[in-house]
Design a protein that fits this description.
CATH superfamily of the largest domain: HUPs
Distance between the termini: 67 Å
Order of helices and strands: EHEHEHEHHEEEEHEHEHHHHHHHHHHHH
Bound molecules: glutamic acid
Number of strands: 10
Strand content: 5-15%
Strand order of the largest sheet: 1-2-3
CATH class of the largest domain: Alpha Beta
Length: about 450
């Protein structure tokens, strides 16, 4: 049977790092198995779902390189859910309930006060025709619950191992609101059946939903897919992933200059024993992917580590991989020598512009030690310059001024590049060229 998975975000916000990880794991699982990856928009919450967020999610997935084979939207399938709902009602598996939120809350508080678990008491099941009519006369409209079997539901989770929940310990879930809108639970099971989903891979916040949904699959006469629940990621130190700790949306990381490949590499390694490989692309990640590598403890996601992995990715990036982006960002003339000279100094790709400007645009030099600068200006050999020029120049300045070490190199770097740090001067000097170098060492903007 061909593997088919789905990533099912609700378009009520931008793609969050935790959800991006779920998408990636599904995608890698599908690719590893030669299967397909469906993007399903869980947009039945008409008030909170927007077309803008849906597009944002598509854009972010595309940026990560996670192409989807097909896309479905739940809001387009309301007729199908109504039909399935009617069949389940006829079979006695959906039943109408009339309690208000306040009444339900009161029931739960009373149960807790008596030391009982807050499981719904199924009052809706035992309403007489007269009570139902009275509610209707009051103008109350029913919401609908799924009647759970009070039996054990078990499955062998691909990450968590054998799992079992007894139906008697769970409340019959509300599947449809009084306004007719559907909650997530039943439409998801209907879609998984209709779209032939073979594996449901998602966060462990859905584990108990799985016990319910397995009963829904059975109630609709379908075999349940396989399930895998990965632990949710936390922030550094085990703190929750909240907006307050900085960027959590994929587009925020993108705006900060994080590269998509190392982002994927990091997300694929979180929760496994592997360290993120800054050089890995999606093909390499697919090659080594195995859902069994994910453990059961909560992995910590550290944005600072992501930034470091992303920088290391750039440090090893071949010119062939960088060329098109250099051109796109306005550095069409950047050649391999330039890229190899600067890549180890980049934190983000756009930093290449800093070094391009140092080499090709006028800058005001910083003259920290006028004697050193003057000595260097006098000692510049005629061109052509090569990889040996810098050492010879430094030697000459040292002989003239007696400076050595930092006292020699720091003023020269400041005068030639206007910056404290950067690529090796041995490499930069021939690229700066004699005319510019001479002007800068003489304190002129050039
Ligand atoms: N829309 C649900 C969520 O984002 C989907 C859960 C699932 O994968 O079934 O949590």
């Amino acid at each position: 049977m061909a593997v088919k998975v789905r990533f099912a975000p609700s378009p009520t916000g931008y793609l969050h790092i935790g959800n991006a990880r779920t998408a990636l794991i599904n995608w890698l699982f599908a690719k590893r198995a030669g299967g397909s990856f469906l993007l399903r928009l869980d947009d039945t919450d008409a008030e909170r779902s927007t077309a803008e967020f849906a597009q944002g999610i598509r854009d972010d997935l595309a940026w990560m390189g996670l192409a989807w084979d097909d896309e479905k939207s739940q809001i387009a399938r309301l007729a199908r859910y109504a039909e399935a709902g009617e069949a389940l009602t006829a079979a006695g598996r959906l039943y109408a309930c009339y309690e208000t939120p306040e009444e339900l809350d009161y029931k739960r508080r009373r149960q807790r006060a008596r030391g009982l678990p807050p499981v719904y008491d199924r009052e809706g099941l035992s309403l007489s025709a007269a009570q139902t009519a009275a509610y209707a006369a009051e103008g109350r409209r029913p919401h609908w619950r799924f009647l759970l079997d009070h039996a054990e539901t078990a499955w062998d989770d691909l990450v968590r191992g054998p799992q079992a929940y007894h139906g008697a310990h769970l409340s019959d879930p509300v599947v449809r609101r009084a306004d007719g809108s559907w909650l997530y639970m039943l439409p998801s099971a209907i879609d998984d059946i209709d779209f032939g989903i073979t594996h449901v891979i998602r966060g462990e916040d859905h584990v108990t939903n799985t016990a319910v949904q397995i009963q829904m699959f059975a109630a609709m006469g379908a075999a349940a897919p396989a399930f895998a629940h990965v632990p949710l990621i936390t922030g550094p130190g085990g703190a929750g992933l909240s907006k307050r700790e900085g960027a959590q949306a994929v587009r925020d990381f993108r705006a900060e200059g994080i590269e998509p490949a190392p982002l994927c590499s990091m997300l694929a390694s979180l929760g496994t024993a592997e360290a993120a490989d800054p050089a890995a692309d999606l093909a390499a990640l697919t090659e080594r992917f195995d859902i069994r590598h994910f453990g059961r403890s909560q992995p910590q996601f550290d944005p600072a580590e992501l930034a470091a992995v992303s920088a290391r990715h750039l440090h090893g990036l071949a010119f062939a991989a960088a060329q098109a982006r250099l051109a796109e960002t306005g550095l069409a003339d950047a050649d391999e020598a330039f890229w190899l000279a600067v890549r180890a100094n980049l934190l983000r790709f756009s930093d290449a512009h800093i070094w391009w400007r140092v080499l090709h645009e006028p800058l005001t030099p910083l003259i920290e030690d006028a004697e050193v600068a003057a000595a260097a200006a006098e000692s510049l050999p005629p061109e052509p310059w090569d990889g040996e020029t810098w050492a010879a120049l430094a030697e000459a300045v040292k002989a003239k001024t007696g400076r050595k070490g930092r006292a020699l190199f720091h003023p020269l770097r400041l005068a030639l590049t206007g910056r404290e740090n950067g690529p090796e001067l041995k490499t930069l000097l021939p690229m700066i060229g004699r005319e510019r170098a001479l002007a800068r060492l003489s304190g002129r903007t050039a």
